[in-house]
Fold each of these.
Amino acid sequence: MSWTTVCTLDDILPNAGAAALVGDTQLAVFRVDDRIFALDNHCPFSRANVLARGIVGSVGETLVVASPLYKQHFSLEAGHCLEDDSISVRRFPARNENGLVQVQL
Amino acid sequence: MSHIQRLLVVGNGPVGHQFLESIVESGCATDYQITVIGEEPRPAYDRVHLTAWFETRQAGALNMVADGFYATNNIDVRCGEKVVAIDRDAKTATTDSGRRYDYDQLVLATGSYPFVPPVPGHERENCFVYRTIEDLEAITAAAKNASVGAVVGGGLLGLEAAKAIKDLGLKTHVIEFAPRLMAVQVDDGGGALLRRKIEDLGVEVHTQKNTQNIGDGEHCVHKLSFADGAELETDILVFSAGIRPQDALARQCELEIGERGGIAINNYCQTSDPAIYAIGECALWNQRIFGLIAPGNEMARVAAAHILGNRDDKQFTGADMSTKLKLMGVDVASIGDAHGNTPGAKSYTFIDEQAEIYKKIVVSESGKHLLGAVLVGDADDYGNLLQFALNGIALPEHPEAMILPNIDGSASVGLGVDALPDSAQICSCNNVSKGDICAAVQGGALTVGDVKSCTKAASTCGGCTALVGQVVNAELTKLGVEVNTDLCEHFPYTRQELFHLVRVGGIKSFDELLEKHGSGKGCAICKPTAASIFASCWNEYILESQHAGLQDTNDRFLANMQNNGTFSVVPRMAGGEVTPDGLITVGSIAKKYKLYTKITGGQRVDLFGATLDQLPAIWKELIDAGFESGHAYGKSLRTVKSCVGSSWCRYGVQDSVGQAIDLENRYKGLRSPHKIKMAVSGCTRECAEAQSKDVGVIATEKGWNLYVCGNGGMKPRHADLFASDIDTETLVKYVDRLLMFYVRTADRLQRTSVWMENLEGGLDYLRQVIIDDSLGICDELERDMQSVVDSYQCEWKTTIEDEQKLKQFRSFVNADDGDKDIVFVEERGQIRPANEEEKQLNNNLIAVA
Ligand SMILES: Cc1cc2nc3c(=O)[nH]c(=O)nc-3n(C[C@H](O)[C@H](O)[C@H](O)COP(=O)(O)OP(=O)(O)OC[C@H]3O[C@@H](n4cnc5c(N)ncnc54)[C@H](O)[C@@H]3O)c2cc1C
Ligand code: SF4
Ligand code: SF4
Ligand code: FES
């Protein structure tokens, strides 16, 4: 599978996220320091495409984003919901390639 | 029994009402046909706080009856009707309107009436008593054309009446027959100090004056002549020479009456006729009348239990008459045997003439037990001393240490609350014991505020608040509940501490804060908190790249995110004022972008359904038309609601709209621990509902009344009167200080109401800090506020002028498309988000992208 470049590192605020469109898929791409993570932008609780707008942080050792509507936490690395382990969102391989933000779908 | 039991209550005062509440609480109210008849024109109101009527001059503020209380519990309430006769054989009561009521059980809660000494002239006009709302209305009306007022009687109520007269702007005299003030509660030493303090306030005190005649005055309406030949002229006279039990009905139907009046009752509050009970100030138990609310309430509970047939043997066994109050700003307290009348009693006295403090304790012959105490000028020891007296706790070896100041800073010889038995009554107004409070804490109430709402402790006179706090803390410690006040796992500090670290350390970014004082990566709790603190301290543009990622959902995009991920946009309309052109522009923008439009509770217009990429364009059009951000998205000042005030309203006394606009423009954009709402009303009719706001301003003839710490929402709370008749400059000064103090010290997401309730010392403490500058920080608070005001910017404007920032407002970083999943349907001529079912059916959907 090939990598798709969605934007440059500077297009995403440090320790925050941005929404990206690859084909028909809406992604939430996050930047933590210089590392990149990608999840489905669809929040299963609110059913709105908003995860990219959540606050990025950590719970214990786990890097997370908090859904901006109802504040459930999703692991950036694994996609599961910390409050409800029956729920998870899709995660996609993502990387920072010399300042380019790339994802694999 | 063939018919449903008829329960008749005569007298709808505080105690009569407590009786009804006790019946209702038992859940058996519907087993009875209940009627309550009161002579006053309105149902029960809080007589204890009668003087507070002057704050609002509205009877409703004193109302004690919950909405729908009578209707829900099927209680027949009769107001303005007086029972004139009881027929015990027929078991009926007849009223002055000629109606007759049958009863199976009758409860007399007729209270007492003020005693007016039969001095010649006592029936002249402008002679009043101080007992009902109507009395206060009459005094207020008379005061309009008066310049001097005098109160006959220097007891507790007389001093309260004197304060009211003084506050009405009259030269005030207090005339007392005895050689000292408050002769019942305090001794000579305490009385002397009290007198000095009250005279300092500009009230003239005349003791040992026996009024013999009231006649025409030369300069004033009346001239009082005293037995010693002295004279005094006054326009208004208020008699407060003691109360007498209202036992007229009992006399008429020949129940047993005490020698000096009062309806004799047994331990179950039954009179000499077992079908008739008497409770409250009309009742005489063991040859004693109890002129306080707490014993009356206890009688009400006992009578209710007895009538309901609860055989848990609840009995009335007398009551403690200790009191603590603030008279004209002077703390006065009296406990038990204040005069040392017990044989063998010894006393210790401490007098500090400099600070004007008088303290005396009376101990038993053995020196082991506390019998009584008098405190004037500083009554902080009241709670502790009362517990020693009530529970017979052994005194320390040197009891005097209990009232001596601890100059060297050594711990005062207080009483650990641990020493109290569970049965110790902590709040006498509401009969809440230490055990009740501990149970509440065990049940999850972790703050004084929580305990207050679930046990009612500390909710009446407030005298027990400090002690309640100690019990709560002790119990928490005992439970091993370490009250973790850390903001979150990333910062081991409270919001208040963090604020201090940021402010003093000059910290301006989250990374720096995390590095110096925290750990991990932060979270959805500490990041917005830090962002808000930075904004309060430094007021930088909140979407600067180091701040943007910290902002909570709505702040991040300067708009309110709604359930489908679209946003609503609210332009500021300060004071709720908008020109026709402005309104038309807002309308045409809404039309152009197909937004749903709704009027908010804060008197402005909310435009819903904008997608992220539409926001800047909408803002630009609004700004071009002269609007700015309404900060509806921020934990910040929302709106200052107003009524039209003197400009249009025939009742208005000040320009409330102008004041609201000025306040809104001053504080707009101020970031705070939670949203802040304000309102300004043009007169006491209060059409702007200012008393439900964090800051409420109500116009008076002389200026403004400032109310603070109210809110609507989930747990509504009326705001408290903070300062009266102040001018605009003072108003702004107080609001500056108050808001800044709140911003500095409140917890995250703590509204002003909860903040104030959790401040030790509550409203009084807040007044000391804000009005008296007890912490010496007022200058600093004003300066900080001014710097926030000076650095205000419209965040929308800053955003649309910055290419870089605008990039954050695209739906996708890599495409110009919009979000295809956002679809609406039409309803009542406007859009609303489609629900799942409608999306499935895919009928008449309106897409934006
Ligand atoms: C200014 C003021 C300040 C006070 N401050 C304090 C304080 O700080 N602490 C404290 O503990 N206490 C205080 N009190 C005392 C407290 O208010 C009383 O203890 C309490 O009101 C007694 O309640 P009650 O229901 O027994 O009598 P009341 O309040 O007198 O009520 C009796 C009601 O019965 C009605 N009534 C009488 N006869 C009839 C009839 N025949 N038919 C129909 N209705 C009838 C009366 O009109 C009245 O409404 C204060 C009192 C005043 C006036
Ligand atoms: S509060 Fe007073 S001034 Fe304002 S609208 Fe109501 S009646 Fe008029
Ligand atoms: S009351 Fe409830 S539904 Fe209505 S706006 Fe507030 S949070 Fe939303
Ligand atoms: S003692 Fe009055 S409120 Fe508790």
Note: The longest helix of chain B spans residues 728-745.
Amino acid sequence: MSKKFLEVRGLKKYFEAGRPSFFAKDPRNVHAVDGVDFTLRRSEVIALVGESGCGKSTLALLLMGLENPTAGSIKFEGMDITHLNDGERKSHDLRRKIQMVFQDPYESLNPTQTIEEIVTEPLLVHGMMNTPDRDERVQKAMEDAGLKPADVYLRRYPHELSGGQRQRVVIAAALVLEPELILADEPVSMLDVSIRAEVINLLAELRIKRQIAVIFITHDLGSVGFFADRVAVMYLGRIVEIGSMLEVLENPKHPYTKALISVIPVPNPRLRHERIILQGETPNPINIPSGCRFHPRCPVAIASCALSDPPMLSLNKSHQAACLLLVK
Amino acid sequence: MQTTLQTVERSNPLGVRFLGFWNTFKKSRTGVLGLVMLTVIILVAIFAPLLAPYGRLETVSISDIYKPPSALHLFGTDDAGQDVFSNFVFGARVSLTVGFFAAFISIIIGGTFGLVAGFFGGRWENFIMRFTDIMLVIPDLPLMVVIVALTKPSLLNIIFVIGLLGWTTTARVVRSQTLAVKSRKFVLRARAIGASRGHIISRHILPLVMPILVVQAVLVISLAILNESALSFLGLGDPTTLSWGQMLNYAFGRGAMSAGAWWALVFPGFGIVWVVLGLTLLGQGLEQVLNPRLDTHHLMPSRPVVQNEARAKPVPSQALLEALNLSIHYVNDEGRAPARAVENVSFTLNEGELLGLVGESGCGKTTLMLALLRLLPSAGQIVDGRVYFHGRDLTALSEVEMNEIRWSGISIVFQGAMNALNPVRTVGDQIAEAIIKHIPLYPREGIPARVTELLDLVGIAADQRDHFPHQYSGGMRQRALIAMALACNPQVIIADEPTTALDVMIQAQILELLDLLRKKLGLAIVFVTHDLGIVAEMCDKVLVMYGGVTAEYANVDVIYNDSQHPYTQELLKAFPDLTKPKKKLTSIPGYPPRLDALPAGCRFAPRCPAVFDRCHAEEPSLHQIGNDGHIASCHLIERTR
Ligand SMILES: Nc1ncnc2c1ncn2[C@@H]1O[C@H](COP(=O)(O)OP(=O)(O)OP(=O)(O)O)[C@@H](O)[C@H]1O
Ligand code: SF4
Ligand code: SF4
Ligand SMILES: [Mg+2]
């Protein structure tokens, strides 16, 4: 397949944050997503990693067409979908092909609907309620999502299910439309460890069984290690390092990536190690720091870091990072 | 099994929903009282012709003016010699009719406006809310008086005028609820699958706005009844009907006061008060059911729940805090077997030690921690076991003595409290409040300095004490809660999942903070989590719980490198380890047991990969392994030895 499956170029999203004072000329902007590039192949899994507030969720909403980008482009299967409106998205079948699984399975299910209503809702919305294979589809989606046997769950309400089961319901509701790309925004962070593995394995399995590509958004690199092909590390609205999973884990180049990897807990007290704990939190994306946007928190920053914004450098054909220390 | 889908489709969850609603509503005494009051008066109105001894507006005898209550005239007679009781009964019809119909109009208008403003936002919202604000500023009653005075004072006109002017609060309430529902994730999810606006409103917004609308409707009805009475009292009522307001008007206007005929005034007034009171109580009851607030704050009331059996007193060790064979049950009023939430759990905690408490959600971690402080909810009871703090048996203390231990001996950071900070008070104020609450005699002038000191201890700059919780990030809020827990210089801090909702970097910061506090203040900490990695990074000892019982208890190295319980081993396999990125994670099939329906034998048996016959028949006891305090509850240990 020569055509790229998903191609994102220079994507930006600024939110207006109101004027600092009544007399100020320009409104201030929240630079939620500030120039993001990446591509994705069919049935590939990419992990999008970064701290809260780095713009991961906004990026997902842009890809879903639930927010309008300020600049840049998104191409899906060769078609420019950057500025399609709701109706156009629906008519190009994007609302079926691209599905999203949200962070919080407690919040993303309507408490007044039964599981059956939730899982069949996408079919209702897409006018597929009267297709002959409807029940079969619902059943298959639920069983593929690990809700077996399906009919045990149909009449229940979300509050009668465990967290893991709720997340499966969300996944089942996404699968029922047979999507090609799933955007999963922190799908396991609210779940217990024993169930996390299950949901991640489920997504890994779906990718093989149904050829679904997955964008896995998370703050915890640890949880996607074995399952993602590639990883993109985001900081303040930009990707600062991107590469194949193993390479980035074994040989991180950007100081931010190094810190992120160092704080991931290792489940073995004999391997307790020095951790690079960054102080403070992701700065407010209204005032992006000059030069390298990471420099106020960077443990190895040099003088020039406050002045020039490092470009993305190719270290090899599957690994890029943006740090002045790499320019040699 | 293909048939199930069809049959299920026709099932009606509404009945089930209503039953559930009724069961909760029943518990609200005010609500039930209000409902009864209202039902009585509605029945009176409906059966008015049967109840009234005389006809509607029937003059009994002109000579019987202002006769006091007697067997013949229960409520006396009025200025026209009419029976007040009969008029009261028929008046209920008019007053209630006006109330219900006017409220209906108000609710429809207010509901629509609120929904449109909240859902569509933008220009619509601006326009509607401006209009609402203007309407809200204009005092209703004078406006009604003017309009009614200008039009013909018929009942229909009055209903319309009251209805058309009474929708403003409804619009506001509905708008804010719509906004709240609209921002919830399931609405976004519906948009993501391409749902139309109509679909989202009817399937997702309305079902969640409806409860608020019902509560609002109840209040609007009572307001409408009051307004009608006021209009009638001012002589603007429909002269062809007789409402309670008009009865008052006539009585007042025709000298009931000077004639000393209190009954002509008191009874219609009583009717109005009765209905308004009934509606208000009903509204309160409904609100409680439909709008439960989360009151899980650090100021949760405590309850004496200890129910110790008489038995030999075990000897405590030298530890700072020790739990010995604790068992905690949750009882219920429905006569079902109690949920055995915690059974026979023991641990010790020494000064400066960090104990990790690990287990899946629902395995009893929080219950165990609340029991240490005797802060269990009322259904929870310590049915067996002891808790020693400095050698004192906490389960035997009085509530007053216990209060001295809470916060100043053992303190707790409640799970999820991060999101339960009071949004309208500054963080500094809330810390001050915690100090005063727990040390009532703390010198007031010393409090600001103490707050600053506490904030400094947890790494929050002094200039942020006057910020509100929403201006704090998750990590900062967690720090503020730790500061509150430190308010009375405790020796033990229980931190219940303090990092669960936080990013790895912030998690690392909080862990670093706790470690620092431990070194600086000599604190002992119980750290509750479901994250094995965090436990490995910083704990000394680990207690792994499964389904309410101890699976394994040992020092941290043993847990990770020499665990004996299949559950611990499976949990480790399920945990991602970046030092082995290729490792495929295995999940533990199935779910933790329901505590009110525990399996026979070992609680882990249905999910255990090493299960054998005996596991299903016999509950494993706690086995001591070696002499390092390593404990595990599994039949395999006996077999291998
Ligand atoms: N609708 C909005 N209006 C204004 N600012 C916004 C809006 N949505 C997001 N932001 C801001 O954009 C930045 C990035 O937000 P985003 O939600 O994408 O982060 P995130 O990495 O997904 O965080 P988390 O992991 O907590 O969800 C944040 O500073 C956030 O406050
Ligand atoms: S460019 Fe400088 S500040 Fe930015 S990551 Fe590299 S060293 Fe740190
Ligand atoms: S007792 Fe049996 S079921 Fe329980 S953990 Fe041991 S082997 Fe597994
Ligand atoms: Mg997010």
Note: The longest strand of chain B covers residues 339-349.
